Amino acid sequence: MKKTMRAIEYTEAGGPDVINVATRPVPQPGPGEVLIKVAAAGLNRADVAQRRGVYPPPAGESDIPGLEVSGTVVERGPGVQIGQGYDDGAHVCALLAAGGYAEYVVAPVAQTVPVPAGVSLVDAAGLPEAAATVWSNLVMEAGIEPGERLLVHGASGGIGSAAIQIMTAYGVDVAVTGSTAGKLEYARELGADVVIDYGAEDFVERIREATNDRDEPGADVILDVVGAKYLERNVEALGTGGRLVVIGMTGGARAELDLSKLMARRGRIIATTLRARPAEEKARIMQEVREHVWPMITHKHLTVTTDRVFGLSQARESHEYFDSGEHRGKVLLVVD
């Protein structure tokens, strides 16, 4: 076993130019953990936020970015027995708190799952974070039900692509917002039945039109990565009993809200992060993902949407591309 490995680090807060390839010790698996030889890591907005200095890793976690990987089990920590699905050579993907942009990473077995049948080892790196985010927020937190109307902002990225497919397979009617005709057509191909150009259309009006067969039109659930900029309009777009789930703040963190509008709709605002959740919660989320989402992949209701793949040594270029907002689906780093 190697003693050292290549890993990505941020030399300071800033743009992609702060990304550096460094040499780090290979981590050792602790109790209930496995050591994974990384095949690929998925890029996420949290990685960019960490790079910009506004979203540090949880206390005690590695400063190496990367919240999801796929790869091969090469070592087991105490308490992880042979025959539990984590034997040497097992192909797995894992949800992490940090450390994925490296040649090796340790992961709790409770957050590590087999690569779904029919998915390549590299493509599997783009599944854990998106699947866990969508399922935990929309099903476990918001309690969305088949037949309800969902509005997704930012529909062409990794989270949006997964939300459209998972929720469509779950029986939910999905509307999306996007910035270009190409991105909206991409969302429609994934299963969205209402697509909204937010630069040319009012998404509040479009959602009300899409639900005008109801006594009180509006979205049942909204999945939002924008935050402050959309807060007031999101509340206006909710139907009675609607739930607004905020998982990002690309449009700012502070906004003013007329609570009477929320109360009139008997609405709720749910704000979550995934990275800092306790290990027990992440384990429960990944158990549900394996139970409910993985069969969607097996039955071809959900496909892996890898947009572009970069080598680990091209991490800077991968962030430049991610920051451009041009990607549709997941951007991955492969260990080259």
Walkthrough of the structure:
The structure is a single chain. With 336 residues, the chain is of the alpha/beta class. It folds into two domains: 4-127 and 304-334, Quinone Oxidoreductase, Chain A, domain 1; 133-271, Rossmann fold (3-Layer(aba) Sandwich). It is built from nine helices and 15 strands. It has helices spanning 45-51, 128-141, 158-170, 181-190, 203-210, 231-237, 259-264, 279-298, 315-324, and strands at 4-10, 19-25, 33-42, 68-76, 91-95, 104-108, 112-114, 149-153, 173-178, 194-197, 219-224, 238-246, 268-271, 306-311, 330-334. The strands form three sheets. Strands 3, 4, 5, 6, 7, 14 and 15 form a seven-stranded mixed beta sheet that branches. The chain has a six-stranded parallel beta sheet with strand order 10-9-8-11-12-13, with helices on both faces. Helix 2 crosses helix 3 (158-170), helix 2 crosses helix 8 (279-298) and helix 5 (203-210) packs parallel to helix 6 (231-237). The chain is globular, with a radius of gyration of 20 Å. The model has no long low-confidence stretch (mean pLDDT 96). GO terms for molecular function: NADPH binding; oxidoreductase activity, acting on NAD(P)H. This is Putative PIG3 family NAD(P)H quinone oxidoreductase.
